[in-house]
Every structure is written in structure tokens, then in C-alpha cells.
Amino acid sequence: MFDKIVLASGNAGKLKEFSRLFADLNIEVLPQSQFDTPECPEPYRTFVENALAKARHAAKHSGLPALADDSGICAAALNGAPGILSARYAGANPKSDAANNKRLSDDLADKADKSCYYACVLVLVRHENDPQPIIAEGIWHGQWQTEAAGTNGFGYDPHFYLPEHNCTAAELAPEIKNAESHRGQALRELLRKIEAL
């Protein structure tokens, strides 16, 4: 097992979430910014390809094992959009959660089907040229809610309504979110795979 891994992301919300999830294993999660890692291009159309590219990039610049997550929200009525473009759905200058949420609300306004899901793919490489990256996936189903509610999440969480909880992801207690979220599911699968090595 590792005692340190680099998170291939500049997202403060993800760093906080992963640090909390890995704390139980005594694994320190370091941001790639500590290693002056430039932003990695994400030219691919799938979560898994982008996550693998980011993990290899972070491992190359840090010399440490690297974990990358590529995740997003996919709306059934929009053929899976925003998908891999979730972080910059409303444009990249600057990236804005509020603008992304507004665009998705607008795009779903005339659609009867408001079902959506969060997808998360985690890729862990032991080194830049790891021939067998560890890959794990999680899917979290919900419904799009136009009105924002809650302050415990980031991204699309205030609009991601969970019928079984009668609230949005941003209204869930962090321990429930960690147990049920797409990222929590993917992390548990990743840890099972690491332990089986």
C-alpha cells in the first residue's frame, strides 16, 4: 500500500473529499499543485480515457503514485450530456458552478425526463508507465431539480435530487454522501482492487 498519493486535480472540493475518504487508511492525499504540475489536456470522449491521461500526467510530474478522477453528471434526455464536459458545460472562462447549473436547468426545462446520474471513474497508477492501472467506477442515480437546495456539496449537488432521501446531494450529511455517492462507490471498488493485489 502507499502512504502518499498525488491527486491529479486542482479542484479544492475533490481534494477535501478524497482526503477525508483516504484518512481512514492513513494515506495522505497531496494536490498536484505541490509539484508544479501543469494542467493535463483532456481530449478524450470518455471518463476512463481522461482519468488515465490525468493520472499518468500527475505521476510523471510528481514521481509518486497518482490518483485521477474523471466524473460528471449525465442527463438521460440529453444523451448523457454534459458528461465529460460537466466542469465547463457553460464555458471555461471562467469555469462556474452557477453557470453550469443554469445551463443544465435551461437545457432540461422542456424535457419531461429529468433523470440523471453522476458517473465517476477513478484511475490509480503506481508510476507513469504502469501497465496495469487500477480502474474503478461508480454510478449515482437521481433527478434534476431546477431549484438549488443545500450547502454541503459542490458542482451540481444542489440540483441533484435523491428521491429516496427526499433531498438534494448538497443537503445530505457528509457521511451519507460518502457512503452512497458515485465517488464513494468508486473508491470502495478501488480499495477492494488494491487489497486484492
From TrEMBL:
Q: Does the keyword Magnesium apply?
A: yes
> A GO biological process this protein is involved in?
purine nucleoside triphosphate catabolic process
Q: Which family does it belong to?
A: Belongs to the HAM1 NTPase family.
Cofactor(s) this protein requires: Mg(2+)
Function, in words = Pyrophosphatase that catalyzes the hydrolysis of nucleoside triphosphates to their monophosphate derivatives, with a high preference for the non-canonical purine nucleotides XTP (xanthosine triphosphate), dITP (deoxyinosine triphosphate) and ITP. Seems to function as a house-cleaning enzyme that removes non-canonical purine nucleotides from the nucleotide pool, thus preventing their incorporation into DNA/RNA and avoiding chromosomal lesions.
User: Any idea which residues are catalytic in this one?
Assistant: D70 (proton acceptor)
Keywords from UniProt, A to Z, are:
Hydrolase, Magnesium, Metal-binding, Nucleotide metabolism, Nucleotide-binding
Q: How is the cofactor bound?
A: Binds 1 Mg(2+) ion per subunit.
Highest taxon listed in the record's lineage: Bacteria
NCBIfam families named among the record's database cross-references = RdgB/HAM1 family non-canonical purine NTP pyrophosphatase
GO molecular-function terms, A-Z: dITP diphosphatase activity; ITP diphosphatase activity; metal ion binding; nucleotide binding; ribonucleoside triphosphate phosphatase activity; XTP diphosphatase activity
- EC number(s) from the headed UniProt entry: 3.6.1.66
Which positions does UniProt annotate for substrate binding?
S9, G10, N11, A12, G13, K14, S71, F154, G155, Y156, D157, K177, H182, R183
- Would you tell me the protein name for this molecule? dITP/XTP pyrophosphatase
Supply the Pfam families for this chain: Ham1p_like
What are the binding positions for Mg(2+) in this chain? Answer: D70
Q: Which reaction does it catalyse?
A: dITP + H2O = dIMP + diphosphate + H(+); XTP + H2O = XMP + diphosphate + H(+); ITP + H2O = IMP + diphosphate + H(+)
Subunit field text: Homodimer.
**Key word Transferase present in the record?**
no
Q: Which cellular components does GO assign to this protein?
A: cytosol
